[in-house]
Design brief:
twelve-stranded parallel sheet; 3 helices; elongated; mainly beta; 325 residues
């Protein structure tokens, strides 16, 4: 379909390799139900216009699985695609939509929906805010492949899975977990929780009082709190920037290489989490200024660098036991 091709071309230029797949049919949850009338993914154009689709570019063949040919049960639709490129559209109930293989496009509509893209490079949206209003509390699972997942309205759970994924929370208090791969997570509005899950990830809290957590690993994770009073949990080699508001930066691992940017000692707090046996004395904190930055050391070993800041009082750095051995 041209609409889907333009959408993928506009948002993921050069990132997807979309191969045409054999058209698949949906598995109906209850084929005996009467026909409800109108509906279907082809009517949902506001989101595509918003991201700037280019309808004249070629793209993969897809199967439009139109809920207008199916009746919702009290718990919602149950649609399943196959191995090809499917388009699934939910409605106002609590729907369950599974893409299967192929590069699928799945939209939940209003309600607390469960969406699983499966294998392939998939596009999942929890709600169409233009039509459905605030939206439900959705679950979006990317699975394998390079996926694009947007919760929109409601308090959503968004799991990237394998591959280099894009996760967008939208409105509400969302939980985003990138999974493996090099992912980009954007909390949007609300008080969100963002977990890197492994890989060289970029976590942006957006507005609200957010929790950003870098999963330990060899790759650098970028944590940016954005607006609000945020908590950033960074490890060795990571970059942590609180942004606007009174932010709490928590450094784990005790290794050199962690970078803190935009730190305001009048508003922000810096914690160093150390693993020590119970009863052991805390290490000595010393500060060293170099090239306009502040180097923080524990018993002489560098643990973090605060860029663009000098004159910091050592008392502003708080030691905390990570756990008892």
């Amino acid at each position: 379909m041209l609409m889907l091709a333009g959408l993928m071309a506009a948002m993921l230029a050069g990132a997807f390799v979309s191969m045409p797949g054999e058209a698949d049919e949906a598995d109906e949850a209850d084929p005996a139900d009467p026909q409800p009338g109108e509906g279907g993914f082809e009517e949902q154009t506001d989101l595509f216009d918003e991201v700037g689709s280019e309808a004249d570019e070629p793209g993969p063949e897809v199967t439009i699985i139109d809920d207008g040919a199916m009746a919702p049960s009290p718990r919602g639709l149950d649609l399943a695609g196959g191995e090809g490129a499917d388009t699934l559209q939910g409605r106002s109930e609590n729907d369950r939509l599974s893409g299967g293989g192929g590069n699928d496009a799945i939209s939940g509509g209003l309600g607390a929906d469960y969406m699983d893209g499966g294998a392939g490079d998939d596009w999942l949206t929890g709600d169409d805010a233009a039509e459905y209003g605030p939206g439900g509390n959705d679950t979006l699972i990317g699975g394998e492949g390079r996926d694009w997942l947007a919760g929109q309205g409601g308090d959503d759970l968004i799991l990237g899975g394998d591959g280099d994924d894009t996760l967008i929370g939208g409105e509400g208090d969302d939980r985003l977990d990138g999974g493996t791969g090099d992912d980009w997570l954007d909390g949007g509005e609300g008080d969100d929780t963002l977990i890197s899950g492994g890989g060289a990830d970029d976590l942006d809290g957006g507005r609200g009082n957010d929790w950003l957590e870098a999963t330990p690993g060899p790759e650098r994770v970028w944590l940016r709190g954005g607006e609000g009073n945020d908590t950033l949990l960074a490890g060795a080699g990571d970059w942590a920037e609180g942004g606007e508001g009174s932010d709490e930066i928590r450094i784990t691992g005790g290794d050199a290489g962690t970078v803190v940017a935009g730190f305001d000692p009048a508003a922000d707090s810096l914690y160093l989490l150390v693993d020590l046996p119970e009863g052991a004395a805390l290490p000595l904190v010393t500060l060293e200024e170099a090239d306009g930055d502040t180097i923080v050391r524990l018993d002489g070993a560098q643990v973090t660098r605060i860029v663009g800041l000098v004159g910091l009082d050592p008392a502003a750095v708080v030691l905390e036991r990570a756990q008892a051995a």
